[in-house]
Amino acid sequence: MLDLEGQMMDVLVKEIDFDSMKNQVDEIDFQALVSGEKVHSVAEVILLNHEKRTEGVVEQMLQEISYKAVPAALVEKVEIDVSDLKVGDSIKVKDLPIAADKDIDLITDPETTVVVVAEPRNKAIPEPEETEEADAAKKEAPKKEEEK
Q1: pLDDT one-digit tens code per residue, 37-78
Q2: What b/e string do you get for 7-43 counting C-beta neighbours within 10 Å, with b at 16 or more?
Q3: What is the dihedral of CA 74, 95, 47, 125, to 10 degrees?
Q4: In the 8-state DSSP scheme, what is residue 84?
């Protein structure tokens, strides 16, 4: 709700212009919402529990989902719990609750992959065990320097 000279209006924030040098907001653009009329919006994709992953690498392929919806059905963010995903698993837009909502018309292709768990590309290489000869060479090197 926006109070504009005493008149209350349902609005959607479309854009905020921020001046980082002055650390202040210069301009905010709003879109008036009309009850029953669908508006274009985007929902941010948020990955939850990715730090609990023990296998694989979580790759977020999509940052936001574009859609049209009536004002009452607007979604700000879509949260995805990735803690139970296994290597090779993926989630597409059509697998999310936003795709099942009858009040929301997706603009983003439902077949678009949102997140995938991939095999790590660079696995840790175990360091070779040092041989007895290498140990002996290290011990003798300081002795030779002392003799000089």
Answers
A1: 888 889 999 999 988 877 888 999 999 999 999 888 889 999
A2: eeeebeeeeeeeeeeeeeeeeeeeeebeeeebbebeb
A3: -160
A4: T
Lowest-confidence segment of 15-24, 26-35, 64-73, 125-134 by average pLDDT? 125-134
Helix (H/G/I), strand (E/B), else coil: 131? coil
Instruction: Using alpha carbons, list the distances in angstroms from residue 87 to 47, 49, 99, 112.
Output: 16, 15, 24, 19
User: Is the distance from CB of 65 to CB of 128 less than 8 angstroms?
Assistant: no
Positive or negative: CA dihedral 70, 73, 77, 79: negative
Q: Are 104 and 68 in contact (CB under 8 A)?
A: yes
pTM for the full predicted model: 0.66
**pLDDT score, position 133:** 59
